[in-house]
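User: Before I run my own analysis I want an independent prediction to cross-check against. Here's the chain; please return only the structure tokens and, at the end, one sentence I can use as a sanity check.
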Amino acid sequence: MCKIESENEQGTTIALIKRIHWENPLISPEKIHERLVNLGISDAPVPNTIAKYIGKSPKTSSGKQIQSWKTSLNNHKKGIWAIDFFVVPTLYFKVLYVLIIISHDRRKIKHSAVTSNPSSAWVAQQIREATPYGATPEYLIHDNDTIFTFAYFQQFLNNTNIKSKKTGYHCPWQNGICERVGGILRRELLDHIIPFNERHLEYLLSEYINRYYNPSRTHQGIECQTPIPSIEWPVSTVADTILVSDPVLGGLYHNYKKRAA
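Assistant: Structure tokens:
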């Protein structure tokens, strides 16, 4: 009897994992594990087990980082925001620039914006829009792009009591959190949906960030939590869990809520 019950529980676990993988084929075994833990499932399988069920290899650990810089960022993370651009071509080969502003403490994307003609004045306006009630960060990490180092922008930061922290030349790892979120947006969104134009790109970013990334995407750097703290679901086993899914971006991703059994 115990063996039969164990096999039934394993079958339920495999079915749940395969369902989440089928509904979210782009997320890794680590992310599936983190989503289950975040939903309060006490017997969530480890990533290696999940990888076995869905036929994917788990991620290997990242390389070494410079400890002194990492320690400094960690000590001041509550007051640090980071900013960066990345380039997105449209379906009609127009080049658009996406600006991302992210907080270090919760990995929350505070603001995103799109333009075809970036300037220091435009970036300053985006920071104003990201801080409508004057809740500015203590530090802003950015690279040595002339848009950020231009006197107008540096004076703007000084007037708003934000300390500019430039990274070293050819050291993108010093702005690693913002660089990484640019890569996430490419891999998880823009590699799969090509924007028609600027307005369409703004819509895609808004949907992904506000409906999936900030409220639902877990991060190992914040102990598998989400940028916007999630509901603390009651603890349950896989066998006792019923999930209701909510599609995002036409089903590219799904959010989950527990339903009473």
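Sanity check: The longest strand covers residues 80-89.
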